[in-house]
Amino acid sequence: MLADNTKIAALITAGGMGTRMNAGIPKQFMDLGGKPILARSVEIFTICPYVMEIVVAVPFSFMDEARDMMDEHFPGKAIRLAPGGNTRQESVRLGLAAVKDSSIILVHDSVRPLVSQEEVKSVIDGAKEHGSCTLGVMVKETIKELDLNSMAARTLDRSRLCQIQTPQGFELKLLRLAHNLAAQEGFETTDDTALVERMGHPTFIARGSYRNIKITTEEDLACCLALLRREGRLDTTAP
């Protein structure tokens, strides 16, 4: 699937402020085993042999910090920064405007630093074949839908429920069209595949893994740190 000359870009969304962590800085700038979370996520794509272009969307007020981080951890790499927006969707749309010369775009949350190269490759394959692809894992617990009074309205069939992850891969022109249409119509969502699906374009679900954790809480951070320690991937040279 990857033998042709398809040009692939990665857009890492780091535009949020991460207020739920109460860290005083955006969570993507926090340390994770000797490296910033954002640096670990960007690194995934700097070592991916298929990705030729990398754009990182960051809060405008942290552009200098982000540039210093890229220069420190990825010297000589042409990583482009774009200003993030007030929402994830706006950050992606602004980041897409900074992508120059690619036909497939991978969109990845900056706070998912443990995705594997194999998973990235599977999303690329899926995007090239289907136009829209995302990683996903089956839910492990029973899910209930609530009514307005927090009472259980019904129990959903978990055998048909999938928990969506990133990266998500798309034909670049398809995702740009979906974002422009959503902006025109005032439609907001936290998932890019939802934007192409509302245009009638289905999304292929590639097999993800439960270790592809999205760091939202202190407990998520501790889990990621434990996995890095188990795999011997802590940066012991960090001060």
Question: What are the key terms here?
Answer:
239 residues; alpha/beta; Spore Coat Polysaccharide Biosynthesis Protein SpsA, Chain A; seven-stranded mixed sheet; two-stranded antiparallel sheet; 7 helices; globular
Q: What are the SSEs and their pairings?
A:
Layout (H helix, E strand, L loop, with lengths): L7 E6 L17 E2 L2 E2 H10 L4 E8 L4 H11 L5 E5 L4 H11 L5 E6 L7 H14 L1 E7 L5 E3 L5 E4 L6 E10 H14 L6 H6 L6 E4 L10 H13 L9
Parallel strand pairs: 1-4, 1-6, 4-5, 7-11
Antiparallel strand pairs: 2-3, 6-10, 7-10, 8-9
Helix pairs in contact: 3-5
Report on this model:
With 239 residues, the chain is α/β, with parallel strands linked by helices. It has a single domain (8-230), classed as Alpha-Beta Complex (Spore Coat Polysaccharide Biosynthesis Protein SpsA, Chain A). Helices cover 33% and strands 24% of the residues. The protein is built from 7 helices and 11 strands. The chain has helices spanning 37-46, 63-73, 88-98, 117-130, 172-185, 192-197, 218-230; strands at 8-13, 31-32, 35-36, 51-58, 79-83, 104-109, 132-138, 144-146, 152-155, 162-171, 204-207. The protein has a 7-stranded mixed β-sheet with strand order 5-4-1-6-10-7-11, sandwiched between helices. Helix 3 (88-98) crosses helix 5 (172-185).
